[in-house]
Amino acid sequence: MSVLLPNMADFDTIYELEDEEDEHVVSDEHLPRYCPEPVVMRGAGHITVFGLSNRFDTEFPSVLTGKVAPEEFKTSISRVNACLKKNLPVNVKWLLCGCLCCCCTVGCSLWPVICLNKRTRRSIQKLLEWENNRLYHKLGLHWKLSKRKCESSNMMEYVILIEFLPKYPIFRPD
């Protein structure tokens, strides 16, 4: 009977396993999560000021089918386009004025258009954050304005990236 019952003196003793090299436990945090490639929405307008196009295409990408409704997508892109339509003509006017006066002001006349372009980018970023918090984070998507290199030249352009958020297994036991 003493063979079946453990010795109570050794009950709290911690033993090291000698086969630790063979046994690897990997936590879920270190496992790679599958996330599809982000969707890149390039500018579709005919005017670009400092890499920011004057509009984005409202055509629904097929990759987002089943993730978001086409109406919601079109509404979000329309909001971004409305912001660009409001701000970009003013930027173009200041750019033309700055280029005309550039020689006299040693380039300082371009500062207003740089500041206005930065303000336009910030307003689009705030709009996209509002859209994310309102809808897209709940659907597992994240929209952001990102700077990318153009495919056709060395110039930089601003694009809307639609990233897929990784899904975490919340029902898996610890």
Automatic annotation (TrEMBL):
<dbReference type="InterPro" id="IPR019383">
    <property type="entry name" value="Golgin_A_7/ERF4"/>
</dbReference>
<keyword id="KW-0472">Membrane</keyword>
<dbReference type="Pfam" id="PF10256">
    <property type="entry name" value="Erf4"/>
</dbReference>
<keyword id="KW-0812">Transmembrane</keyword>
<keyword id="KW-1133">Transmembrane helix</keyword>
<dbReference type="GO" id="GO:0016020">
    <property type="term" value="C:membrane"/>
</dbReference>
<dbReference type="InterPro" id="IPR039735">
    <property type="entry name" value="CHIC1/2"/>
</dbReference>
<protein>
    <recommendedName>
        <fullName>Golgin subfamily A member 7/ERF4 domain-containing protein</fullName>
    </recommendedName>
</protein>
<feature type="domain" description="Golgin subfamily A member 7/ERF4">
    <location>
        <begin position="54"/>
        <end position="143"/>
    </location>
</feature>
<feature type="transmembrane region" description="Helical">
    <location>
        <begin position="94"/>
        <end position="114"/>
    </location>
</feature>
